[in-house]
Design a protein that fits this description.
The chain is mostly helical. The protein has 3 helices and 2 strands; from the N terminus they run αββαα. The radius of gyration is 25 Å and the shape is extended.
């Protein structure tokens, strides 16, 4: 019995629909946050105007992008640089706690590309003697 191949058109439609829904959600809370808060980065204090407003992002304090109370209590406006830094700090804290953000924890590297280098260098110097 042959296995049925997934319909790529149907999958493309599902992905497109999910992306559009995400964009709509983001647009909604972004617009709300920009109305509630001054256009200033909550970390570095950089001020924004209409000209550079695209560089001001909405950060979810609890890191849950589906938690969007209309009073804005889970949001803060951060410039793209501070936002990236905040997420890196969060990932570091998760890693320190021994948990992984991904579906599976990656193993530490065990391969040492320079393991035999000393022997090779010693062998080369012996050949020139």
């Amino acid at each position: 019995m042959a296995s049925k191949e997934p319909d790529s058109n149907k999958l493309d439609q599902i992905v497109a629909k999910a992306r559009k829904a995400q964009e709509e959600r983001e647009k909604g809370y972004r617009e709300q946050a920009l109305k509630l808060y001054p256009w200033v980065c909550g970390r570095c204090g950089r001020e924004f105007t209409h000209k550079n407003l695209r560089e001001l992002t909405v950060h979810h304090r609890d890191h849950n992008h589906d938690n969007n109370p209309s009073d804005g209590s889970n949001w803060e406006l951060l410039c793209v640089y501070c936002h990236d830094n905040e997420h890196m700090r969060y990932e570091d804290e998760i890693a320190k706690a021994g948990r992984s953000l991904g579906a599976q924890k990656q193993d530490e590297a065990t391969h040492n590309p320079f393991a035999g280098l000393k022997d090779l260098l010693n062998k080369g110097s012996e050949d020139t003697d």
